Structures are given as structure tokens and as C-alpha cells.
């Protein structure tokens, strides 16, 4: 058997076209352009690339964007001032702080400074808290896990009662993914670097979300026949045959996994484009909430 490949790029293109249409309609209704403000401290090349991609995606769908880039030795107070200025800027509806921050900056302090109504990354502790609690809804859900949920929905995956295994417990992927799958009534197991018998735990998954940052760690023989596999991992590995000298692979060994899974995402072209799309969607949502629309 060879799995159905879930093409995140195609789904993202379709959703982005819809967002562009909605942005245009929003501008027509209110004369307001949805705006995203980004703060990036330091010169991490991967972060710089993500910020460029976010800016380009905003342009593509008609969202106004502003990026504040500061160097890695910028004091915390200055970073906080930039966040507060974006909170107060009437042309900006969504604010995000590109992670990771330099080591001398307190991430909790900075993320907590983002206005709740502008927290389009969904990383404010109150938004994560609301995501964790029964009967509460956060204003925004973090982009990568909500992109994974859209992929699962697009593939028609039944989550109610399914055994879901999540590899990774980070604040930005593993933890919110866990909370979303619990809300969707899956039975969720979370694995991390201390998990014993990892391959055996993974073999119980009807739905596997891999977000560990370890190139091709999950092999085909870890995967239950017919499981759904969403690969969040984005790992750079040497590839002398490519012009760049490297290639990007996921946390899942695709050639062996595709033979046993029923549905699988590719890296690149799977979760990555969905992450950007959900950020655009959250920014539009923030603008709509700003004018009092029900969303
Ligand atoms: P983190 O490094 O923050 O977290 C990694 C998690 O994996 C941790 O919980 C860690 O455990 C666990 N882990 C690490 N090694 C192992 C191992 N050998 N066995 C079991 N668990 C392990 O990573 P992120 O969550 O930020 O990102 C994960 C991956 O997803 C990365 O490749 C990243 O580039 C990618 N990513 C992709 C995005 C996209 O849009 N496609 C967006 C965000 C991330 P412990 O907690 O014990 O340390």
C-alpha cells in the first residue's frame, strides 16, 4: 500500500486565495487594511527566513505588514517597547514576536506583553490557558498546530476516540497540538526525550504528529498499518547533490513511512505552508474582531 499524500502547499494556496478575497471584502466594508506587526531580535538565519516568508505571504493576500528587526544585544526593555508600540498602533491588528529570542531576554515577559486581542501567534499564556481548559476558547490558536488540524480535517480523518501520538512537547507545537487533539476527543499520548520504548508507543498511533526536530527519526516500521502521519519536522541535512549543498527533511523517514501509512504529509510542502496560512487567517480574524465582527 502507498499512502495518500496530503499536499499542504495545494491546500495552503487554496486557503490563501480565500483569505485574499476576504481581506479585499473587509477593506471594502470598513476601509481598513488588516495589519501584522513582527518583532525579531537577533540574526538567526532560519528566523530571518521565516520573517521574510511571512512578509511575502502578507503582501500576497493584501495584509499590511511591519517588521522591526533589532540586533541580538538589544536590551529586553527595548524589545518590550517595540511590542507595546505595535499593541498601540491602530494600523496593526496582529502582533508576533519571532522566536527564539536571544538568551538574555525573558520570553515569558515578552510574549505576555503582546496584547491579547492582537496575539495572532496564540502564545500569550492566557491564550494557551484557555486552549487547555474545558469550555473556554482562546482568542487565537498557534499557527502550526492549527495548520495540522486543518490538514487532518481536509483528509477527513476521524479524531473522535482515535489514538493520537504526539512526538514533542514544545510550547509552540507539541503542547498546543496536544490540547487541540484532546478538544477533538482523541486519546492523546505525548512523547519527549525521556519517553521509554518510543517506537512501541508510536506503533499504537492511529494519528501520529511528529515534531521533534530529528531528521528522519521515525521509520516506517514504527508506524501502524493505515496510520495518519503529519510530519512537522523541518531539518537541514547535507546533500552534496543539491546546488545549496543541503536539503530539508522531516522527522519521519518518508520512503519507508509512505508504504505503511494511509495518509502522510511531505517535507517540504506539508505543514510549513499551512503554518503561514494560519498566521494570515489569524491576522484577518484579529482585524475582524477589532471592528466588532463576530468570527
Ligand atoms: P523543540 O526543540 O522546541 O522541541 C522538540 C521536542 O522534541 C521536545 O519536546 C523534545 O523533548 C522532543 N525530542 C527531542 N529529541 C527527541 C528524541 N530523540 N526522542 C523523543 N523526543 C525528542 O522543537 P519545536 O517543537 O520547536 O520544533 C520541532 C520540529 O518542528 C523542528 O524540526 C522544527 O524546525 C519544526 N517546526 C516546523 C514548523 C513548520 O511550520 N513546519 C513550525 C515549528 C517547528 P524534551 O521536551 O524532553 O526536550
Keywords, please?
295 residues; Rossmann fold; 2 domains; 6-stranded parallel beta sheet; 3-stranded parallel beta sheet; 10 helices; binds NADPH dihydro-nicotinamide-adenine-dinucleotide phosphate
H and E string: EHEHEHEHHHEHEHEEEEHEH
The CATH architecture assignment of the largest domain turns out to be 3-Layer(aba) Sandwich
Q: How does the helix and strand content classify structurally? A: alpha/beta
Strand content: 15-25%
**What is the tally of helical segments?**
10
Major sheet: arrangement of strands = 1-11-8-7-5-6
Present as ligands are: NADPH dihydro-nicotinamide-adenine-dinucleotide phosphate
Number of domains: 2
Distance between the termini: 41 Å
The overall average pLDDT, rounded, is 97
Percent of residues in helices:
40-55%
Report on the biggest sheet: 6 strands, parallel
Gross morphology: globular
Uncertain segments: none
CATH-assigned fold name of the largest domain: Rossmann fold
Under CATH at level 1, the class of the largest domain stands as: Alpha Beta
Structural Rg: 19 Å
The CATH homologous superfamily name of the largest domain equals: NAD(P)-binding Rossmann-like Domain
Kindly state the number of beta strands.
Answer: 11
